[in-house]
Each structure stands twice: as C-alpha cells, then as structure tokens.
Amino acid sequence: MTRPSVRSGTPVLEIRGLTVTLPEGADRKYAVEEVSLTVGAGEIVCIVGESGSGKSVTAFTVMGLTPRKELKPVAGRIRLHGRDILGLPERELRRLRGEKMAMIFQEPMTALSPVMKVGDQIAEVLEIHTELGPRERRERVLEAMRDVNLPEPERLFHSYPHQLSGGQRQRVMIAMALVLDPGLLIADEPTTALDVTTQAQILELIKSIQRRHGTGVMFITHDFGVVAEIADRVVVMQEGRVVEQGPAARILTRPEHPYTRMLIGSVPTLTPPERPPRGEAETALEVRRLNKIYGHGGWFGGGRVVHAARDVDLTLHRGETLGVVGESGSGKSTVARCIVRLVDITSGEILIDGVDLAKLRQAELRPHRRHIQIVFQDPYRSLNPRRTVGQSILEGPMNFGLGREEALARARELMRVVGLAPEVLDRFPHQFSGGQRQRICIARALAMEPRVLIADEAVSALDVSVQAQVLDLLDKVRRRFDLAVLFITHDLRVAAQICDRIMVMWQGRVVEQGPTARVFREPSHEYTRRLLAAAPGRDSFLAAE
C-alpha cells in the first residue's frame, strides 16, 4: 500500500522518557516507564500491545486526562508542537484540547452526552474555543459533518446519539475532534466494536483526513489488520515499556522482539485451515423459518416496524461450529437471543430433540433451558460483581437439582478444563483479567452440560494473544463435550479459523451459507464479497498462512 509522505521538521508530538506511577498495591510500580516516541505531521503511528501494556495511559497522559492522584507522571517530557506540556495547569491543557490536540474514544455512546443533540455537542467545542456566533458555528459544524461523510448533516444535526448507528456516532466523534483542525489526533481503539465494513470506512476516513490536513495521528489498537492497513510506523509496548518500534513494513514482516513475534503469531489469518469432511452427526439444533419483528406503534397505527430476522433456517450438528457473520443490524444477535428465548419470536420453529421451544411458555421452558447456554461479549457485565465466581457457577446446576457437593466438584473440574485453578472459585469477578473472566463464563455455561453453546462476540473485546487462547479453549471444549457451537462474530479472521461452516446474514436474511473454506474462497453473494474485501489487512501477509 502506498503511504502518504511524512512531513519533515519538528514532530507534532515528542515523548521522551515518560514514566507514570501506579497506585500503591498495584501489580507493578509504573504504568509506563521510560517511554519515548514521536509522531510527525502527516504520519500515522500505531501503538500496539496487550491490555495493561500502557498504551492508553500514554495517550491519556498526553491529553492530561489521567487521574493525577492515581497515575502520576514522575519523569520525562511531552512536547506538543515543540512546547513541553507535561505539568501544565488544567486550564491551559483544556485550551490545548481541541485547538492543538484531540482524541477519539473507543465507545462513542459513552463519550457523547445522551441528552444533547449531536450538532450541539460539536458546536460546543467551537463555543468554548472560538469567537464565532451561533450562525457561523452551525455552518462550521455542518461543514465538519460533511467532511466525515455523514449523510444528511442538516437532519443529523438535530439527532440524539441513540438515533444514530455505531459508525455514525464514531463519525460524529471524529467531526468533534477535528472541527478545530488540531495538529495531533489520538485515536484510542476507535474501530474495535465496529463491523468490518464500517471499520473499513472509518479507517479510510482517518487516512483521508490525515492526508488532507497533514494531521499527526497516534492510533492505539490491538488489531494487526488495522496496523497493516494504516500504519506508517509501529510502537510495540509491553508492561509499560516500549520493546520495539520502527517502520510498519519492517515490524510486520521482520519483527525482532519475541513479544512482537508472539503478538503477530497470535493473529488469525483469513485463510481457513483444511478441515476433514464430517460424517453424519446428530442434529443438535434446527431452526425453521424464524421471524422476529419489532413494532413501534404510533398514535394512529403508523409506527415503525423492523424485520430483525426474516425466514431464517439453520441446522447445527453435534461437534460442529457454525459461524454467523454480518454487519451490525444484520440480525446475528437477534437470532441468537431468539434461540435462547431471551426474546420471543414472531413466528417459526426452534427444535431440540423434537421439542419446539418457540411454542413453550416461560414456565414450560425451564427444563429445556439447560440444553442451550450462551456466552456474551462482555464477561464483566455477565457476572454478578457481588458474588464469587464459584457461586455464579454453582447456581445453575443446583437450581436444576444437583446437590451442592456434586455441583462444587463439577465446578472445580471445569476450572481445570478452562485453564484456571479450582482455588479461584472463592474470588470475585473484579479480581480477574478480561480473558480469565471469559473463561469463567465458559465454565459457567458448561456447568449446565448443554448440547448447544452460543458464543455471541465472545472474543471481540480481547487482546490477540488472549483471543487465541480463548478460541483454542472453545475448540477444546467443543471436542471434549461433543458440543454444537453457534459462533457469532464480526471478525472474519476469527470465523475463518474456528468455524466448520459459515452463515452470512444481511438485513435479517441468510444470504449465503456453506463450508468455511468454500465461502471464503468462492463467495457466491455480492454482500459476502463486500464483507471479505473490507477486512483490514486483506492484502497484507496477514491474509494467508
């Protein structure tokens, strides 16, 4: 890929020897230690590393957004356009934010105020930092919204965040960050939660803005597909230190540090492995013509009707992993929630052992719920923070009649299965890492001895190395317990590696399904081809083994 030329001269951002302390009792003394890096005008520098590596602490320290009582800079300097900004008063830093530097956060729904129209939120930046009047501010906001390719900016100006899609909310955040044309843009995992096509659009937008405005971009990510797509240079961080940095082409193809090699080696490729043909296996789950319609009635019956799932058919066999892929809003998670009966379906059949779960009332469903278990995207929200993980795992089996001692023995064995010590059953969720919490959620699901396990974006928020471990775990428990796994994901690399078959959904419909290798090699539907073409790093070495 051809990169824009990087401008010479004084760097937009220069960090030298930055050291930030952690609070007393933390697992190490420093959040970041002796960190040095630069970002030039017109340059995209990707900061990569696992959770806890110090990526975000570095970025938030540059912005002056760290809680100083907990994360205190004790050494080094940060120069913005040649000026040392470390230790500036809050009032002066507030002036620099927006004018000279700006930040795009990972989750725009939490970064945007839910009670303000998005146009007013962008205009607020201009009201604070400029002398423009209301009419001039409005025109500047509309211009910024057009600049980030938001459709119908005049209409969206008066919309609230919840009325926009995830990609549109992220574009609003970018417009807000760039409305004053700052020289430095810090992007903290801005595409992690987005589907591949929206992610591709946001990455292209950031590259386009960088080229047009000569903006220096510090891009924090754990996705090496994104790195391959946009980076000029790469900085690799581990446990608060920079262990390697250099041109993206060199880092990606000839990494020198063992940690960098481990990270890149953990990245799943877009080439599905060869899988031996399966013989006839028992059908674990069958879904026939499933429909789910959400209706919003108006005063005169003219409310909005949304067909979230349309005539969905699927068959899942024991010992098989079926991947469901598609953009946000395609109906993937709706189908999963209908199968588990977290929401009632409008019409159709959900068959397990010849029993149609769709026809059962909630009271009649209870004995059948153990057969289908689900693992969600966010394990921290899935576990009760006030209960030990042991209590959470024991609850299900004991509710279905298992004695406490037998349930405890099962929980201890499952801890070993998922790679954790049985002794941790007495700990609380906050005492574990994200990957460990997801292992606990898998153990809790397996405690019910289900026939079908649904994984709904179960690894999308994890670092690449932890993601690889959890994927290996899912594959191991599938083989050990002869599970049928319905694997929902927007990450095509993950789907390529773990799924026997792929089902592609678009606008609530199944538009294509078949063996994973065939779908990736010879997609028959135009929508599938668009999804595959949008995968970041598609044309890099990450595309194949």
Number of strands: 20
Discrete helix count:
21
The CATH topology of the domain at 1-93 and 218-265, please? Rossmann fold
> Average pLDDT across residues?
89
CATH homologous superfamily designation of the domain at 1-93 and 218-265: P-loop containing nucleotide triphosphate hydrolases
Specify the overall morphology.
Answer: globular
Low-confidence stretches: 1-8
Provide the CATH architecture of the domain at 1-93 and 218-265: 3-Layer(aba) Sandwich
Largest sheet: 6 strands, mixed
C-alpha end-to-end distance: 20 Å
What does the model show?
The protein is of the alpha/beta class and 545 residues long. Among the domains are: 1-93 and 218-265, 3-Layer(aba) Sandwich (Rossmann fold); 383-449, no CATH class. It has a 6-stranded mixed β-sheet, sandwiched between helices. It has a 6-stranded mixed β-sheet with strand order 16-17-18-13-19-20, with helices on both faces. It has a 4-stranded antiparallel β-sheet with strand order 2-1-4-5, with helices on one face. It starts with 12 loop residues before the first strand and ends in an 11-residue tail after the last helix. The relative contact order is 0.11.
Task: Describe this protein with a few key phrases.
21 helices, 545 residues, alpha/beta, single chain, Rossmann fold, six-stranded mixed β-sheet
Brief sketch in words of this structure:
45% of the residues are buried. The chain is built from 21 helices and 20 strands. With 545 residues, the chain is an alpha/beta fold.
